[in-house]
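Table S2 (text version). Query chain:
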Amino acid sequence: MKRLLILLSILLSFALQSQQVFSLNEKLYLDSLQNVTKSTAAHASKATASFLLSNYYRNSDSLLSKKYLEHGKTFITHDAFLTGKYDYYEGQYHLDRNKEKAAHAYQQAIKVLSKLKTRESDFYQSLAWYGYGVTQKDKEGYPFLVKTVVEKCIPLIKKYGNSKNLGFAYTQLAIILTYNAQFEKAGNYNKQAIKILEKDYPDSAELFYTYLNSASNFCYQAKGNEAKKFLDKAEKLIIPYPESSANSFFYYGKTLYLITKQQNSEALPIIEKGLYYTKKFNQNLQAQMFYFNKYDILKKLKRYSEAKNVLENILAEKSLAIDLNNRKTIYKQLSALNEEMGNVREALVWEQKYSKLNDSLSSANVRLEINKIEAKFNAAEKEKKIAILDAERNQKNLEVNKKNSYLWGLSLILLLVLSLLIFLFILFRKNKKISEQRINDIKQKEELSLTRAILDGEERERERIARDLHDGLGGMLAGVKINFSTWYSHHLPAEKDKEFYKILGQLDHSVSELRHIARNLMPESLLNFGLETALYDLCEFYVRKDLDIDFQAIDIEKKIPLPIQLNIYRIVQELLANALKHAEATSILLQCSQSDDRFMITIEDNGKGFDTGIEHTKSMGLRNLKNRVNYLKGKMEVSSDPQGTTINIELKIDGE
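Corresponding structure-token output:
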């Protein structure tokens, strides 16, 4: 269920990012806008009303949305602000259809609106920055989107004080943080948004969506009781408007709450209510998310045939499956579901589709990483050429200055000539040292880039091998197990049960060992949930009956760059392995803490200790440990005696 929630959260995040909030009283909202377009109002009012109608229909009726967009364009004339608004709404129209066109339109809007210095132009400029960040999310990742919201969107609105627009911006930032598992930060921004909106805009649609986002945030933390408080508040706001399309989002939030409380049977009728609104307002993507939750519930209730039909319909409808990662997840679920139903052949078919698509995605990721490395290399080469040209230019300038000085010196007395020559010599030496220093700096940067590339390449190779083992060979072994079980039921007599299950147990042990190897190569929890969670999982992995590990994490931030997180993880992994393999410890205390750009690791064990004068230099494990510490510009202290060993490590994690 955890993987399904991750998939659905990504999709819901996309749906909320791409929307602009409309009034909960949609009928009144639409009627008023349409009346303006048909009236004798000013051109600016007609243009704005047409743009808002275009934005309202862009996901439900593309032809009507395009019609209103072009209708509004006819009223622009030479108004710069209306031109910027048109560019923004053109970006909105293309956002879910063509991200390149959308990005171009948003950039045009930013260019035009940035020249105007009004509150309304700053607000639309903020929206355009947000839309542009969404278009770049797949290329640059969520950090780029967060940076855009924090550095571009919010400052443009915040300078005018608390407003509905600022509350809306905080809510959007909270959505991004929620679906990147930064629940505490998301909760803080939700609180700021609610404080503003409850005070001055208590009946607004912005407050309604903020309540729903807060409820979702608590659901993903399995805090159902806290989530219900905000769901109840959202329900009070939406009850007066039973014909509003926003009801589908409310019922989705309620479905998520019931799943969190494990009230699966009660969630099914809520899903049907939500589907009624998605069909009524052509909310196709939202409908498929409801169906995915329905599939998961039916599977839990062991209504496998119904669950299979729902999942196959989701795949056929394509709204979710158009994303390759989502399709891969659906293939995996269909394989597991058919295996549960005893459909061995069909399970193998879906498993093969999953493996093929997974291999394809892995290859694409490798190509992307190669392109990034190549781009970095080319940039380094350009910097090197620039430095050489600068050095040559400086040398030529020195030669010219020397010649000019010599010509001027002929007209001066000998004392002045000598003084000038001495001055030029000192200047030449100084510039030469500066040039040499620049070259040395460039060499050091290149050496550091090469070291980073080697370590990054090692981690990528670990990830590739882990993925191949887990998804490739693991899938094959799973298929062998399924076929083996099927063959046994038709060919072996009952008296051979004991021997057969012994072999089957060996196969299960092989699969477990394979997963153990894959996990050591590349910890999934580090990639998905961050360093602190990965270290907890690592300690839990090593714990057994005769060994107790006490892990303490203090102020570990999630914004540490991933390569540095991986190096820290490998350092801790090596420390634990040494304590178990060599020290034969029965109790280990591990403490990891962060203070600004410093990361401290302390590990103590009650093992038999070792001679630091000999083992410290000969042990390959400790040499590897020392290399990683040096790479992070850190220092390590080792103290050991027959009562145990203590190791203190301090690392620099500023990414420089």
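Notes on Table S2: Residues 414-491 form the longest helix (78 residues). The beta strands are 548-554, 587-595, 598-605, 635-641, 644-652.
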